[in-house]
Write a structure and sequence with these properties.
The chain has 290 residues and is of the alpha/beta class. The chain has one domain: Protein tyrosine phosphatase superfamily (Protein-Tyrosine Phosphatase, Chain A, Alpha-Beta Complex). The protein is 46% helix and 7% strand. The protein is built from 14 helices and 5 strands. Strands 1-2-5-3-4 form a 5-stranded mixed sheet, sandwiched between helices. Helix 6 links the parallel strand 3 and strand 4. Helix 1 packs antiparallel against helix 2 and helix 13 packs antiparallel against helix 14.
């Protein structure tokens, strides 16, 4: 374990930070099973990772018209996603979303009713400043904002250079692999989990579309909690449904400004999720694109 990893794990004293920053990413299921989470002060993360089948069933997660990919990490309805040992994640603890740059007043009020305390923005500076897909988050009063940049490519610029669907697909596969292979990005994900673990109250994390970096963070949480890989994959693919209307609107704007080819390339890069884009964990076999 590197000095940086030891510093992260010592500072947080959290199971999640040990799993990610300590280089134990691919042994998450076994490690999580060996950790007595009840003996660790894990803050909001502990609330998610202490599943019980007797949880009171909450009302379905509200749909936000202006934040289309807003969802509960534990599932949007019912008792919450089931773990491998038959328990359930607790809903209403940690949420995921696309960027909150167009949050309406009505949706701010809805977020306020969820007792949202902290928002973690995984976008890099080039995304936040992008005139088409960027912007500052618009949050309810009293919600703490923290930017933890896990840098991604400038998709608009990249979309102007893509020459084929295969090139776009390869880029997305490489980008997702880098969540595991790139030390700086691994440290970013470690920071997100550490901050969630230290946070008090309801937490939310997001990137631009709320599917790749957000999906990977969700996978880590699910893996620690023992959620089956098939459930996590199904949750990941829900972005295709939740983002459809938002993607169509954004692509229409880009078509008008930069032309149809750039819009088509952007669709190939960012507007949908495919199973082959996910990094493969040792507990699940590689999947093929639908």
């Amino acid at each position: 374990m590197s000095t940086r990893s030891r510093t992260l794990s010592t500072r947080t004293a959290r199971a999640a930070a040990l799993l990610v920053a300590g280089g134990l990413l691919f042994t998450a299921p076994a490690t999580a099973g060996a950790i007595d989470l009840s003996s660790i002060d894990t803050g909001s993360l502990g609330g998610l990772l202490d599943p019980g089948s007797s949880n009171p069933v909450l009302a379905p997660t509200p749909k936000l018209a202006s934040v289309s990919n807003f969802r509960d990490v534990a599932g949007n309805d019912g008792a919450g996603y089931a773990t491998a040992d038959g328990k359930h994640l607790k809903r209403g603890i940690v949420y995921r979303a696309n960027a909150l740059t167009a949050t309406s007043d009505a949706d701010k009020q809805t977020l306020a009713t969820l007792s949202l305390a902290d928002v973690y923005d995984l976008r890099g500076a080039n995304e936040i400043s992008n005139p088409f897909i960027g912007g500052q988050d618009k949050l309810p009063d009293g919600v703490a904002y923290k930017n933890i940049p896990i840098e991604f490519a400038d998709l608009i610029q990249l979309a102007q250079t893509i020459q084929s669907p295969e090139q776009a697909r390869q880029f997305m596969m490489d980008a997702n692999r880098s969540f595991v292979t790139d030390a700086q990005r691994r440290a970013g994900f470690a920071q997100v989990l550490s901050d969630i673990a230290e946070g008090d109250g309801v937490q939310l994390f997001h990137c631009t579309s709320g599917k790749d970096r957000t999906g990977w963070t969700t996978m880590l949480l699910h893996s620690i909690a023992g959620v089956p890989a098939a459930t996590t994959m199904s949750d990941y693919l829900l972005s295709n449904t939740y983002l459809q209307a938002t993607n169509e609107k954004t692509l229409a704007q880009i078509t008008a400004a930069l032309g149809p080819q750039v819009a088509t390339n952007l669709t190939r890069l960012s507007a949908s999720t495919r199973p082959t884009w996910r990094p493969v964990s040792p507990r699940s076999p590689p999947t093929t694109a639908a």
